[in-house]
Amino acid sequence: MSARGGGALGAIASARSIAIAAGVVITLGFIGAVLEAKARVGPGGADLLGWVKIALDSVVRSLKFFSLDVAPEPEKTNWFVALARVGGALVATVALLKVIAAAFGRQYALIRAKFCRGHVVALGLGARNSLFVGDLARTRKGALVALDVKPPTAKAIGAGRRGVGLDVDLDLPIRAAVANLAYADIVLIGAGSDERNLALAAAVVTAPGRGARQVVVTIDDPALAERCENEPAVGRPPSGDEVFVFNTARSAARSLFERRPIVDIALRRGQRRVRLVIVGAGDAAIECALHFLRISPCAGLGRPLVQIVAPDRAAMAARLADRAPSLLQGSEPGRDAPLSWAIELQIVDQGRSASAPDRSALDALDAAAEDPVTAVIVAGDDSVKNVIASLTLKERVRDRPGWRAPIFVQSALSSSLDRLLAPHGAPAEADGAQIEPFGRLEQICRLDAVIGRREAAAREIHAGYLEHRRQSGRPPDRSTEPWDRLDETFRRANRRAADHLTVKRCAAARLAGRPIDPAAPLRADSETVPALAAMEHDSWRIDRELDGWRRGERDDGGKTHPDLVAFEQATAASQKYCLDQVTLLARFDAGAA
User: Fold this and answer.
1) Separation of alpha carbons 248 and 132, rounded Å
2) d(C-alpha 577, C-alpha 569), whole Å
3) SS in 3 state form for 432-492?
4) Tens digit of pLDDT for each residue in 461-482?
5) Separation CA 581–CA 460 (nearest Å)
């Protein structure tokens, strides 16, 4: 293991700055030496060889200015020589300090890290972890300690003098003392593959510490991310740390529907239901379908229609079967699947086109639905191809009735292609055929997006549930554990309720005859609360059934619940809880606003 310092010594001056300063010193010294030589030669001047000798002597004298020679110069000298002498001394001093910093930077960085308290530790500086670190450098005080296989600098981690960079072989077991993990508040893990990140997370949560650290680990596979959350060793480690699994596709889907829940478009247009078209076979396409389904219940709108257009229909069906079996079963005619009441799902072949659906695929989509398209999501595996597909699709549906809908294109990184999207996203086209990017890493790789308002709302909802159970007098069970010991399935249910808040805002506004604004705080009164409570129950039921729960006697271990029925058929206690939760959410939303 090796380390290099990234603090104040390492940031004294860059090599480029020293080289520029040295060039200025040499130039000044040369000019000054030539002027002095010319004065000595006198009016007669010198021949060609004489001037060559003067030039060479002037270069040699200029180089001597870097020698830190303290011998006094003759009193009669020009300003060029005086400035060169001072500048040369400064450049030599800085260069010497750079050499010292390079020699002792390892020890200096380790000493700085040793005395850090309440700091942030970044294990790996990949694209996403670097964005997390940059966000924290702007929004949080305190030191940041970055470990990577390359020698990170304070400038690289965007923390100035607060940054400590350590060059560490992350394949080796992490020594807690290196980054002083025991006293860290936040640990960000993003060093490469999912297996590597999980190994680092296991090393962190088992390292000695004072507990209560917030650990964010990046996992690229959405299914693996969900399985890891369900593992008690990750979700509820014995160390007392809080582990949050960050997945790009899931976060992209959540950020999209938090900003544009899609139901707001349908409500403003007076549609009878949402018709959502998803183009592409990337992870984000599946996560968008799942997340939308969880938050889709909305007063005034019927069962949504989700049409997925994929290059290979059979392959997409197989992926959906692995990711959410009950979702796919709900789309198969003649089968009494758990989610058949909640969604109408269709999977259509993209056709021969390599980018967007061809004419035959568009005809198949329109033949299967009379409803106009509410929105289109383009989410393939490649951001560049997604942008091209969205532009191609807009051109192909230009003359099709019912296709004047916004197109949301997954684009992880800003690029020159954004200029192609700009003419298609004018505010005047609100809810029209504009093209809007979503899932930008700089927007979703923020700690507040992972551990922020959504998490606070979920905990507030769980606190309200605990109070409801206490008043009901029912015996405690696995769902009544405190948050830090709560099973992930119940944590996910509370987060789902927080995600559904945006839809409740839109529905409450429509029911009350107010303008629909997904960002306006929830206003619930005696006339709107019953409808909002029914929406909450349906959203909860969808989330439970997606998570594998079935109707039956209450058995948290076996994932059965008697209230997995329509709201009107649920028990009085369950209905009361939904009513109370809507009121609780309205209070939370008003306070947060």
Assistant:
1) 13
2) 14
3) CCCEEEECCHHHHCCHHHHCCHHHHHHHHHHHHHHHHHHHHCCCCCHHHCCHHHCCHHHHH
4) 999 899 888 888 888 999 999 9
5) 10
* Identity of residue 74: P
| 374 backbone dihedrals φ, ψ, rounded to 5° | -85, -45
CA angle 208, 212, 218 (to 5 degrees): 90
Residue in the structure block whose two tokens are 């945006």: 502
198-219 burial, b at 16+ Cβ within 10 Å, e below that, comes to: bbbbebbbebebeeebbbbbbb
Q: What is the pLDDT, as a whole number, of residue 590?
A: 86
- Alpha helices by DSSP H, listed for 180-276, are 194-206, 222-230, 232-235, 248-259, 263-269
Q: What share of the chain is helix, strand, coil (3-state, %, to 5)?
A: 55, 10, 35
**Percent of the chain surpassing pLDDT 70:** 84
Predicted pLDDT of residue 152 = 60
The residue ranges of the chain whose pLDDT is under 70 are 1-14, 42-46, 67-77, 101-106, 108, 149, 151-162, 167-178, 209-211, 328-337, 422-432, 592-593
Average pLDDT, the chain: 84
Spatial separation of the C-alpha atoms in residues 314 and 317, rounded to whole Å: 5
Task: Tell me the chain's radius of gyration from C-alpha atoms.
Answer: 32
Name the CA dihedral angle for 355, 361, 362, 368, rounded to a multiple of 10 degrees: -140
Q: What is the pLDDT of residue 23?
A: 82
For residues 311 and 423, give the distance between their C-alpha atoms in angstroms, rounded to a whole number.
Answer: 28
Cβ 385 vs Cβ 355: under 8 Å:
yes
pLDDT tens-digit map of 151-179? 665 455 655 556 777 766 666 556 555 67
> Quick one: CA dihedral 287, 289, 293, 299, positive or negative?
positive
pLDDT of 43-98, one tens digit each? 666 677 777 777 887 777 777 777 666 555 555 667 777 777 777 777 877 787 77
- Domains, in order of start, for the chain: 10-103 (no CATH), 115-246 (3.40.50.720), 252-443 (3.40.50), 451-592 (no CATH)
Q: What is the dihedral of CA 419, 421, 427, 432, to 10 degrees?
A: 170
3-state secondary structure of 410: strand
Distance between CA atoms of residues 178 and 187, nearest Å:
13
Helices and strands, counts by H and E, the chain:
23, 14
∠ CA(326), CA(332), CA(557), 5° rounding? 15
Distance CA 269, CA 262 (A): 11
Closest CA to 308 of 231, 365, 246: 365
Measured distance CA(256)–CA(239) in Å, rounded: 34
| Structure confidence at residue 62 (pLDDT) | 75
Instruction: Write the CA distances from 501 to 274, 327, 374, 532, integer angstroms.
Output: 18, 23, 20, 10
